């Protein structure tokens, strides 16, 4: 029995040694796969900081002759890609595809670069490879679906999106891809159902641009127009989250690129990642006012008002004539219940930014609240003079006129607001209500038709206006 155990122990030791030899041999072979031709010639680096150059030189040296050539080439690829040197990054990725063939990041990141330059046919096999190596990394699978769709391979694109939904039911980007296929196939009802779910899930972040066409094809022109208005009010499109790509920004030394990446993460709803990216920008350029402002807004969204206030205060110290920084600080102080500090900030802001329409409008609102209506009118008129193409100050001025019982003047201001901002919800609802009370059935019916198409008017307000119309005229509008 002892001899048998000894034999097993010896056999196991021999096997472990053999495995170790194979692993070491494969690792060494991978290191040898990093060739001098995989290391790009250094481009003009512009004004990037010294730390970037130091890291670049170190990675180049290690990739040429170090014991960790693959790791060094990976670092070199990240440094180039994160800072916008896409040709050099692509060269590194080509070497990594040979030296580290089982790593799905390299084909995914190289495909991202190629697709960005419109080279979809070259990107497609790389995303196929990434999906095969990492079947649960959904951004790569979604990108593959998008490329298949753009190259008119709808059947395989549909299978790819369906595979995403198998792993993550309700994925908005997969549903959007399938809706695009439905549109190509003129399956309008199916496209509508998918798109309505997408816009609901993303708060009109994606999909809303396709819905009007779908509604029109289904004969619903009113909903098409309403969705266009809602889309304009909801903000910009945001791209799908891609953690492997986002991690590149930990190696970025370009403040502008960091600001753009932070804004993209914010639009995608990932405020934590946005703050992390902007914190890096702040460390690189600590006196950059736009970075300070962006961080202040991000901390407001994450409900950290102390940090937000600190960033806005730093904005106006660094640039006293920065009206947007003052506006955020003034508003934040007011929300914190410190009216006196907010008033002092407003006075300082107007002294430094006398041509800011928002600051004059805010001053007019406060004078109105304090009952100083004549002074409020002057401030609001100044705001309109400085920015005549926005409707908000007209609406505020109308409110003051209504308090003074200057109804005709108030109505005139509301009409002006609609000239510069059609479908302003307050102006529409107020003019509708006043037409109803004045017994102007034709006018009230006309205003009600606009109210129905304006999604920024709450269902509760629409119900109030509808009830008032029925009570006044004894019929539905």
Structure commentary:
The longest helix has about 30 residues, at about 1-35. This protein is mostly helical. Helix 23 (about 405-420) crosses helix 24 (about 425-435). It is flat and about 85 Å long. The protein has 26 helices and no strands. The model is unreliable at about 10-30 and about 230-235 (pLDDT under 50).
Runs in which pLDDT lies below 50 for 5 or more consecutive residues are: 11-30, 232-236
Number of helices: 26
Secondary-structure class = mainly alpha
DSSP helix fraction = over 70%
Radius of gyration from CA coordinates? 30 Å
Percent strand equals under 5%
Q: What is the ordering of alpha helices and beta strands?
A: HHHHHHHHHHHHHHHHHHHHHHHHHH
Which term fits the overall shape? flat
- The mean pLDDT is 89
- Distance between the ends: 98 Å
Number of beta strands = 0
Major β-sheet, in short? Answer: none
Overview in brief:
This protein has 477 residues and is an all-alpha fold. The protein contains 26 helices and no strands. It has helices spanning 2-33, 50-65, 69-82, 86-99, 105-116, 120-133, 138-150, 154-167, 172-184, 188-202, 211-217, 221-234, 243-246, 255-267, 271-284, 289-301, 305-318, 323-335, 339-352, 357-369, 373-386, 392-403, 407-420, 425-437, 441-452, 459-473.
């Amino acid at each position: 029995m002892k001899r048998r155990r000894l034999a097993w122990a010896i056999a196991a030791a021999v096997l472990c040694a053999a495995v170790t030899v194979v692993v070491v041999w494969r690792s060494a072979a991978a290191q040898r796969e990093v060739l001098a031709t995989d290391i790009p010639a250094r481009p003009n680096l512009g004004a990037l900081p010294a730390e970037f150059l130091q890291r670049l030189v170190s990675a180049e040296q290690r990739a040429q002759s170090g014991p960790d050539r693959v790791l060094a080439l990976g670092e070199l690829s990240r440094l180039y890609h994160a800072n916008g040197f896409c040709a050099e990054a692509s060269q590194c990725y080509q070497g990594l595809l040979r030296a580290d063939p089982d790593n799905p990041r390299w084909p995914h990141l190289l495909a991202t670069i190629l697709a960005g330059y419109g080279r979809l046919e070259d990107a497609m096999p790389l995303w196929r490879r990434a999906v095969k190596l990492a079947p649960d990394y959904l951004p790569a699978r979604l990108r593959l679906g998008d490329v298949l769709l753009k190259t008119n391979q709808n059947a395989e694109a549909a299978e790819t999106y369906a595979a995403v939904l198998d792993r993550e039911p309700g994925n908005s980007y997969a549903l959007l891809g399938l809706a695009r296929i439905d549109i190509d196939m003129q399956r309008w009802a199916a496209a509508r159902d998918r798109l309505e779910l997408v816009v609901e899930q993303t708060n009109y972040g994606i999909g809303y641009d396709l819905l009007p066409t779908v509604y029109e094809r289904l004969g619903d022109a009113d909903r098409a127009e309403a969705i266009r208005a809602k889309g304009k009010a909801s903000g910009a499109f945001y791209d799908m989250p891609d953690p492997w790509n986002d991690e590149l920004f930990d190696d970025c030394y370009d403040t502008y690129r960091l600001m753009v990446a932070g804004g993209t993460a914010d639009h995608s709803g990932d405020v934590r990642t946005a703050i992390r990216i902007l914190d890096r920008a702040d460390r690189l350029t600590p006196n950059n006012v736009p970075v300070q402002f962006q961080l202040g807004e991000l901390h407001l969204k994450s409900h950290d008002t102390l940090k937000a206030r600190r960033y806005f205060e730093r904005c106006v110290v660094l640039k006293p004539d920065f009206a947007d920084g003052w506006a955020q600080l003034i508003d934040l102080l007011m929300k914190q219940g410190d009216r006196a500090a907010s008033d002092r900030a407003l006075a300082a802001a107007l002294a430094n930014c006398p041509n800011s329409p928002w600051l004059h409008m805010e001053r007019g609102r406060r004078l109105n609240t304090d009952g100083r209506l004549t002074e409020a009118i002057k401030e609001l008129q100044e705001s309109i003079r400085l920015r005549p193409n926005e409707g908000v100050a007209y609406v505020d001025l109308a409110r003051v006129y209504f308090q003074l019982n200057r109804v005709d003047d108030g109505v005139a201001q509301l009409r002006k607001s609609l000239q510069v901002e059609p479908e302003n919800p307050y102006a529409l609802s107020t003019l509708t209500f006043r037409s109803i009370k004045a017994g102007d059935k034709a006018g009230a019916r006309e205003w009600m038709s606009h109210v129905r198409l304006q999604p920024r008017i709450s269902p509760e307000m629409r119900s109030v206006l509808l009830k008032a119309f029925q009570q006044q005229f004894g019929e539905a509008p």
